[in-house]
Amino acid sequence: xxxxxxxxxxxHYSFAFEAKHYFCEKITIMLTIPYxxxxxxxxxxxxxxxNFGNTDLIDEIISLDDDRRQSQKExxxxxxxxxxxxxxxxxxxxxxxxEEANALKIRNSELKEKSRxxxxxxxxxKERIQGKLVxxxxxxxxxxxxxxxxxxxxxxxxxxxxxxxxxxxxxxxDLISRYDLVDFELGNKVTGAGFPFYKGKGAxxxxxxxxxxxxxxxxxxxxxxxxxxLVNEASAxxxxxxxxxxxxxYTIGLDNLYLIPTxxxxxxxxxxxxxxxxxxxxxxxxAYSNCFRRExxxxxxxxxxxxxxxxxxxxxxxxxxxxxxxxxxxxQMRAHVAGLLDKLELPYRVVKLCGGDxxxxxxxxxxxxxxxxxxxxxxxxxxxxxxxxxxxxxxxLRIKEKAGQTLLAHTLNGSALALPRIxxxxxxxxxxxxxxxxxxxxxxxxxxxxx
Length: 451
Known about the structure:
Blueprint: E1 9-10, H1 17-22, H2 33-38, H3 40-49, H4 55-94, H5 98-133, E2 154-161, H6 172-179, E3 182-183, H7 184-190, E4 197-198, H8 200-219, E5 223-225, E6 230-232, H9 233-238, E7 251-252, E8 257-259, H10 264-268, E9 275-277, E10 283-292, E11 311-321, H11 326-343, E12 348-352, E13 364-372, E14 377-386, H12 390-395, E15 398-400, E16 406-408, E17 410-418, H13 419-429, E18 431-432, E19 435-436, H14 443-446
Parallel strand pairs: 5-10, 9-15
Antiparallel strand pairs: 1-2, 2-12, 3-4, 6-8, 7-8, 10-11, 11-17, 12-13, 13-14, 14-17, 15-16, 18-19
């Protein structure tokens, strides 16, 4: 056989064991100024896992905050003196001491101007501090392996059965052409490269997968929402897509809006500036959406066919969790994605991303990769991440505990699942001499068992 993969089973490791080993301690890392001040060395050590070595930036933030604190203290003292003078002026006027009262009024005017200038300085300092803070990525969880690229990621689990392909097996882009499932040329004509048309059974397979993923999430307790496909600047900032250092987002300049790269952005921002009662946790949402990514710098065989598109479909799961429970939640979400791939009968592996391969906002990320047999490649189809309080800090998303105290929530999300590469793997792995077999779990959704 040309693709050289005999039938074999890969051991399916338990998803639960790591929670006991890695997540037994309470983690509440947040890139707030108190954290950078009080746990500076811890922040530097953790950020070094993401290969962030700009310690001067942290020192600069602390120095600016020292200036802010001093200016705030001076302004508070000025306002207190103004308040005392106002009281004293009233007493002096009542006592007929007009000259003394007028002298104090002059002094109060001077203090008012001083307070105004201090207020301007404070606003400028806060803006400068915020501008510096957004340059610092989230501090990774202590279990994240060090490394600089995908080559340094850690495989933590594998599962599924490797397919045996027929002698004349071909990659998915040839299958797409043979069965007229996707039209790349038409997409290029209407929009551009990376915006394909799905046709006939290709379109029905897309719809079947979307409905299957949504139904599975709803059965697992997620509430479905249908979000907008554009977000404003505050929303993109809240989840960490802005600043867009890699220029991956499509922007609508005239209206200052952004096409979403994932439903994570609008769904998580439902809870921006919200206080959630502790007894309402966990909050679980699922959403289907189109996703838009510029994929700047992508090239080569990894972008051929459905491997990488500018517009694609994805079902996203999002949870808001108490900090004490967020890593148990991460494991539950990881198990949910694994269950989907099991039902689709696809071989896959779970990879813990190293610091250099993680997103700016993530504290810990697991990638799911399915094996695409005709390409002999592992294709990423899901990322499941815990952002701890990084996004919540930006969005001012808080939890009110039963004792009455408030604290920043932890946010998590995962692809469950992204469609293009799932479709690629399904087509390649299930090809036979006389057609492409559809997994049994999808039969009620497709209405057909074979293409």
